[in-house]
Amino acid sequence: MRCDLHVHTSRSGMCTVPLARYICRESYNDPMALYDTLKRRGMDLVTVTDHDSIDAAEYLRRFPDFFLSEEVTCTLPSGNEVHIGVYDISEHDHVQLRQRRDDIAAFAAYCREHSILCSVNHVFSALTGRRASADFSLFRELFPAFETLNGHILPTCNRRAELLSEEWGKISLGGSDSHTLAELGRAFTQVSGARTKREYLDALKAGHGQVRGISGGFCVCTQAVWTIAANIPKEHRWTLLIAPLLLLVPFVTLGATLQDVFFAKSWSRRMGIRAAWAPPETCPSVVPDSL
């Protein structure tokens, strides 16, 4: 069974980029369109990991192959932020985790006490900002899983996360981190032999999942930003006046890509991780309707 464990819908809220946060959403994916696209691309199960929200469940909970998840923005003792994926949760869990997201130890303890699989997402990406050595110590101590294949970030970032996960004995998870429909299913987590949703989720917790698919990088991110930006005028027609600014998008995404390269190399060196040669990534066996 396959499931893309990192996807977003329009319920993910506003983007966090300065200025753009007032007019631009993180994603414009309609929940039903997301579900249909994932099924068409070979996913046996569907989940949604919106940022600090479970509102998309209203549309998808009726499907027996759906389970509720979330990407929670947590604050570390250092003051830095981290995105934690939590899988197969209830609405009650959502409320309890939200109350604990500024106390990372209490957050992790709740997950542990309620058998909720939780993962540190995009470990070696600068997406959530600065990092401190103490942050990595907490990742090692508190969380059982790392996202080792993110379909939006560079292969070098994913490879370093994979190596750190192996060294620290973490569960490996993968997902597309798609904020548009185009990239859905480009990365996912597979459990061979699982026949039901419960078997799949139990196998994930036991560390029996295999990440599959391909990484991203500059081109994937640039296309995603353009797609998201193209949806802004649907809510704010006046933004058509600043459409020429879209020409700057490649420069912005190039800067973010180079920042990720520096971030990954710098922190993996501090962690003692050397990104050795890895075999080419395998493309997911999904219907390539727009991939």
Structure description:
The structure is a single chain. The protein is an alpha/beta fold. The protein has a single domain (2-270), classed as Metal-dependent hydrolases (TIM Barrel, Alpha-Beta Barrel). The chain has helices spanning 31-40, 57-60, 91-100, 104-113, 133-142, 155-168, 197-205, 218-231, 249-270; strands at 2-3, 46-48, 66-75, 81-87, 117-120, 145-150, 171-175, 187-190, 210-213. The strands form two sheets. Strands 2-3-4-5-6-7 form a six-stranded mixed sheet. A three-stranded antiparallel sheet has the order 1-8-9, with no helix packed on it. Helix 2 (57-60) links the parallel strand 2 (46-48) and strand 3 (66-75). Helix 8 (218-231) packs across helix 9 (249-270). It is globular and about 50 Å long.
Q: How is this structure best summarized?
A:
The chain has nine helices and nine strands.
The overall pLDDT, averaged over residues, is 92
Which of globular, elongated, flat, extended, rod-shaped describes the shape?
globular
How many structural domains can be distinguished in the coordinates?
1
Q: List low-pLDDT spans.
A: 276-280
CATH class: Alpha Beta
Say how many strands there are.
9
Query: Looking across the biggest beta sheet, what order are the strands in?
Result: 2-3-4-5-6-7
Largest sheet: 6 strands, mixed
In what range is the share of β-strand residues?
15-25%
Secondary-structure blueprint of this entry?
Blueprint: E1 2-3, H1 31-40, E2 46-48, H2 57-60, E3 66-75, E4 81-87, H3 91-100, H4 104-113, E5 117-120, H5 133-142, E6 145-150, H6 155-168, E7 171-175, E8 187-190, H7 197-205, E9 210-213, H8 218-231, H9 249-270
Parallel strand pairs: 2-3, 5-6, 6-7
Antiparallel strand pairs: 1-8, 3-4, 4-5, 8-9
Helix pairs in contact: 3-4, 6-9, 8-9
